[in-house]
């Protein structure tokens, strides 16, 4: 059987897109290298002194896990040397990370969540790295500014994730469909395993942390009641699946159909917009899901249309099969 590597696949797609350049391939190469290093540590996490927390708190007010910190440092170290980035932004860093002057700088900006699903690290459950690639708008003669970074998700050049699961996968889009690659550890290459992924029109699964039911508003409760009802349009209750790693929950629903929800809740006045971050979690997954025929909204707005006001902005997220997301839109628009 002929096996297509990720580099081969990207090069093939680039010949179709005249605006594409070898820079994107270089960036992807270094991202893949960083992800291979991260997956190596994730795979032997139980054997090393790398489980548990570092004792520090990140910009989100959350405990930094050692593997989270390792993944973050690996990505920054590798990607600042790639020659095509001018800046990076990480879920773990409060400010923009400018590529130091000693390295060659380019026009691209990388935004990432280094290890999504941190609470699952210590218990050997799937985690992942989510990334989003933007192109700066200002001239490369000037220093990159926050205005260059705060772009709508619709302007992403590419986005994807690495899933460190029973096998390690890369799923990405550069606006020409969604393609999945599985790491063959014997040759160290990601090989095309899921070409042109399409999400089913409607799923059988809803994914939400239902323990927050009493913190939700009426609209969200109605949405979840709908998916549980035997009298919904499907004619049967959906199954509930919730790993607690967004990448893993998203990946399952992308392949099998379904909807993932992280609505706003009234737990904490400091985060009325739910938990997930617009730029490093919601937007890249929204780009992927739309490219696969799905939808992503915050309850009323398309995620990709939201202009971020700051780097670590949070947003409610409803993402998945188009008919399931349409149900949320309908219930939200009819309910006060
Ligand atoms: P993280 O990026 O710090 O790991 O936080 C995001 C994670 C998501 O992967 C997951 O969907 C969510 O937090 C789970 O949160 P909760 O425990 O509130 O359901
Ligand atoms: Mg995350």
TrEMBL record:
Q: Where in the cell is it found?
A: Cytoplasm
Cofactor(s) the record lists: Mg(2+)
The keyword Metal-binding belongs to this UniProt entry's keyword annotation: yes
One GO cellular-component annotation of the UniProt record comes to: cytosol
Binding of Mg(2+) 1 occurs at 91, 113, 115
Q: Where is the Fructose-1-6-bisphosphatase class I N-terminal domain?
A: 5-195
Q: Read off the InterPro entries from this record.
A: FBPase_C_dom, FBPase_class-1, FBPase_N, FBPtase
Query: Which residues are listed for substrate binding in this entry?
Result: 209, 242, 275
- A single BP term in Gene Ontology: gluconeogenesis
The question of whether Hydrolase is a record keyword is answered with yes
Please state the pathway this protein functions in, per its UniProt record.
Answer: Carbohydrate biosynthesis
Q: Which Gene3D superfamilies match?
A: 3.40.190.80, Fructose-1,6-Bisphosphatase, subunit A, domain 1
Superkingdom assignment? Bacteria
Q: What is this protein called?
A: Fructose-1,6-bisphosphatase class 1
**Originating organism:** Desulfovibrio psychrotolerans
The taxonomy runs:
Bacteria, Pseudomonadati, Thermodesulfobacteriota, Desulfovibrionia, Desulfovibrionales
